[in-house]
Amino acid sequence: MNAKIIAIANQKGGVGKTTTCANLGIGLAMENKKVLLVDADPQGSLSISLGHSQPDSIDTTLATIMGKVITDTAFEPKEGILKHDEGVDLLPANIELSSMEVSLVNAMSRETILKQYLDTVKKQYDYILLDCMPSLGMLTINALAAADSVIVPVQADYLPAKGLEQLLQTIGKVRRQINPKLKIDGILLTMVDGRTNFAKDISALVRETYGGSIKVFNADIPRSVKAAEISAEGKSIFAHDPKGKVAEGYKSLTKEVLKIEKIRQKHKAGISR
Ligand code: ADP
Ligand code: MG
After folding, report:
1. pTM
2. Which residues surround ligand 2, an ion (CB under 5 A)?
3. CA distance 57 to 231
4. Which reaction does it catalyse (predicted)?
5. Angle formed by the axes of helices 138-146 and 113-121, nearest 10°
6. Which domains does the chain have, with CATH numbers?
7. pLDDT at 147
8. Ligand 1 centroid vs 249 CA: distance in angstroms?
C-alpha cells in the first residue's frame, strides 16, 4: 500500500470541507479501503464530527506529532491515531494546532513537516484525507505540499467569487516550488439546493473559465438538514440517513474518486484506452 493523499481545501469557511472529509473518508472505508483522516484545522471540527466532542482535552494530536517532526523527536508508528467505529482512523486536532503556524515559520523545511510525517504512515493506508483549515497559511501549504491531489468543495452559489482564484494561485505556486505532481481532482459542489440545472450551469461556467483544466465532479451534495445533524452525532451520513440524498451524493463522490485513481493507475502502467 502507498496511500493516495487528498487535501480537502478551500480558504473559505463553511463550504463543506469537514463534512466532505468525514463522509468521503467513511465512504472509501465502506469500499474496503484503509483510510486515515487528518484534522488539520485548530478548530478540530473533523475530530468533533467523528465523536470527540471536546477536542481540547485530547492529549496527542496533529500538533504533537508535527512538533516532534520539527524538533526531530522520535514518535511511535501509530502515535495519536484514534479509531472510529465506521472503519476510519483519525489523527485529531485541537486548539494547540493554532501555534503551529508560528512554530513553522522558523522550522527547517517548514513547508514539508506534514509530508515528512505522512511519509511514515502512508504505507499503512490506501487513502489519507487532509481536512484543511479555512486559510491559505502554513498549515494549508503543508497539506498541499504533502498531497497528491486536491478536492475543492464549493458552495454552489459562491463559485464565481474571487476566492477560488486565490486558491488556484496558491496551488500553482505549491506546484512550481514544492510539489510538482499536485493535481486538482475537481470542484465539488456542496449544499446544492433542488435546482437540478444549476449544477450543470456551474460546470459550464468552470469549463468556460478554466478551459477544461479543472473538472467539476458529476456528483454534487444536496443541501439537507440531515448533513448538518451528523456532526453532533459523531457518525457519518451513511449511518445517520443511509437512504437520503446526501448519502447518495457522498456515495457517488466516493465512486468518482475511486475511478479517478483507477484511471491514473492505468496511465502509470502505460495501458491507455
Ligand atoms: P467547512 O469545513 O468548509 O467549514 P463544514 O463541513 O463544517 O464546512 O460545513 C459547514 C456547516 O454546514 C456545518 O454546520 C455543516 O454541518 C453544514 N453542512 C455541511 N454540508 C451540508 C449540506 N450538504 N447541507 C446542509 N448543511 C451542511
Ligand atoms: Mg472545516
Report:
1. 0.96
2. 17-18, 45
3. 18
4. ATP + H2O = ADP + phosphate + H(+)
5. 40
6. 4-268 (3.40.50.300)
7. 98
8. 14
